[in-house]
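Quiz preparation item.
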């Protein structure tokens, strides 16, 4: 019979980590220098891969949407679907997945290496708080950086859809923009940004948790990195449904 005890224990340790982070923010704030460094690492350095993903997502979405709509003579509505799909779903989710693969793996490997080489234990011995130094700045930086990345990804993805609409589908730019502006509202962008901020916290907190739980030397670091990426990606997809449901209820 499958035992749920290890999963329950892991969830308990994870939520205790989140509690410690919240307590640390309330009591000590965030180290601004480390926060700035993490914003560059998580946000700025992730920008190229997010932009490439966004523009080709917009392009293929426009192409596939037009292929389906032209059967009903509704090809002019490509902009509507591209805009809503990118701002509400694909922009936040795909950006979070890219950050999970790039940043989550790096954080898990870095913290895991520090654990197996006893650097984290040394910090505790010297009276420093590993949560304050290693975890809090990363989570706060992800909470700030992900929405910024998603804003750029939405704009670039829509522009990619426009390029395909104009040069492949024989639609005018005016028709695309008109259908886009007719459909999109501020709430679509806001919902996507709220989800992206939550995804940022999820991705980085899971990576930090996995890193700090590393055991088994260098082989354990490899297992930790893989687990952080796989777990982060799965939780993004699962939580996306519940976040969407909640946001629609309050819409």
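Solution:
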């Amino acid at each position: 019979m499958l035992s749920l005890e290890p999963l329950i224990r892991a969830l308990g340790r994870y939520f205790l980590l989140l509690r410690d982070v919240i307590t640390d923010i309330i009591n000590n704030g965030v180290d601004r220098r480390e926060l700035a460094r993490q914003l560059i690492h998580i946000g700025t350095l992730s920008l190229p891969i997010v932009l490439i993903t966004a523009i080709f997502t917009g392009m293929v979405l426009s192409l596939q949407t037009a292929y389906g709509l032209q059967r009903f003579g509704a090809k002019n509505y490509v902009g509507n679907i591209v805009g809503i799909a990118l701002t509400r779903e694909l922009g936040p989710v795909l950006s979070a997945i890219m950050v999970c693969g790039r940043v989550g793996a790096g954080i898990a490997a870095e913290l895991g290496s520090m654990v197996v080489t006893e650097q984290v234990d040394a910090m505790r011995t010297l009276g420093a708080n590993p949560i304050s130094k290693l975890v809090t700045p990363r989570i706060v930086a992800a909470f700030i950086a992900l929405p910024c990345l998603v804003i750029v990804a939405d704009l670039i993805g829509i522009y990619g859809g426009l390029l395909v609409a104009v040069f492949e589908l024989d639609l005018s730019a005016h028709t695309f923009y008109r259908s886009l502006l007719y459909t999109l509202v501020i709430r679509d962008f806001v919902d996507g940004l709220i989800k992206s901020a939550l995804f940022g916290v999820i991705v980085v907190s899971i990576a930090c948790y996995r890193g700090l739980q590393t055991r088994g030397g260098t082989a354990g670091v490899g297992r930790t990195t893989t687990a952080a990426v796989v777990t982060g990606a799965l939780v993004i997809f699962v939580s996306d449904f519940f976040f969407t449901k909640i946001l629609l209820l309050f819409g």
